[in-house]
Amino acid sequence: MSCFPCFGGGKKKSLSADTGRFDDADAAPASQMTPPAPAPAPMTPPRPDQAPKPSEDASAGLAIAGQAFAFRELAAATDHFTPYNLIGEGGFFRVYKGQLEKTGQTVVIKQLDRHGFQGNNEFLDEVSKLSRLHHDNLVDIIGYCADGDQRLLVYEFMSAGNLEEHLFDLPADKKPMDWCTRMKVAYGAAQGLEYLHEKASPPVVYGDFKASNVLLDDALTPKLSDFGLAQLGQVGGNAPAPMMGSFGCCAPEYDRSGQATMKSDVYSFGVVLVQLISGRRAIDPDKPTEEQNVVAWAMPMFKDQKRYHELVDPLIKSEYAAKALNQVVAMAAMCLQEEDSVRPLMADVVMTLGFLTSLPPDPPAASVPAPAPSASPAPKSDHSDSSSSSSSDDDDDDNDNEEEEGEEEEEEDAEEQ
């Protein structure tokens, strides 16, 4: 009967798409003989109580190139963030020195403001970007912590401290940084900034470049720290974080708009370059009023090449090359242009500083722009002239005396006669 086809014929066979063999048509459907395969795990949404931990998100979805630390590990490393391990503060973070218990490695731990983020996703996304930035002149990120509402970053420890400690208020027993080392630091810092601007993907605006953020290792190789933290302070729709401690290093347009750009980074680099040349703080209230701002103090000397040597740190004495000084001061003046569009790119700065570091030192006599010694022979000639004239005068006096004595003798002879 046509209305019950399954009871007809019974001997027909059909090709099974599942097995590739001919099966009886009146056999039971495959779905009734073999249970269906389970759906792939990713297609099944997890229950709320089985949501992955932040560290699992980082390793699977964001590929963070760093270790995920538990908060208790970092608390133990810093002795529970005690004040004697506090080595610095920023606009929205505190910096602690610590030692990891498992490896004994000394590290720097930045504890970020827990209220600066709306959730783990924003924080982990920024950490993922930072962890992919690698350069010889950038401080490496070792890991992070995102337990609960804790937000921490773990960096390598730089044993020689920061640049400020080698330029300002030196103790009597500490040797000042020489000219060649200062240029090496400037060149390395410029390379790190160039990498962030022109080679990182996506490019990174530093936002808070200053001497205290230039860290040094045992060989005094510079490495930039805190790069990208300005972005971390803004995630989640928050207002830009204040650049604490950067007064005097900020570009004029940043003071007006509060917006950091690559060209404002170039300006800040120019400030640090003047500090390396002069050994002065960006803002020093102990100086006379007209010298408190290092840029305002340097500006008149930028306009007169004959005054460039007045910019040099007195502790350097006669160690610098005159040609190198002229070029590095000219570069600093370009970085500090009021109009951001005429400031150079960091690639141009790197090229110039790289050339200067390869220059051989000038001969000692030509290394110091001292007053010309042409004035010294003049007194000698005057002295010799005066000596000769005085000797000639003495000769004339002797001749006069002899003539007078001769006349007296003639008069005596005449009287005797």
UniProtKB/TrEMBL annotation:
It is a lipid-anchor. PROSITE patterns: PROTEIN_KINASE_DOM, PROTEIN_KINASE_ST. Its EC number is 2.7.11.1. The keyword Cytoplasm does not apply. It is found in: Cell membrane. GO terms for cellular component: plasma membrane. It catalyses: L-threonyl-[protein] + ATP = O-phospho-L-threonyl-[protein] + ADP + H(+); L-seryl-[protein] + ATP = O-phospho-L-seryl-[protein] + ADP + H(+). Residues 1-58, 362-417 are annotated as: Disordered. It is an enzyme of class 2 (transferase). InterPro entries: Kinase-like_dom_sf, Prot_kinase_dom, Ser-Thr/Tyr_kinase_cat_dom, Ser/Thr_kinase_AS. This is non-specific serine/threonine protein kinase. It comes from Oryza glaberrima (African rice). The lineage of its organism: Eukaryota, Viridiplantae, Streptophyta, Embryophyta, Tracheophyta.
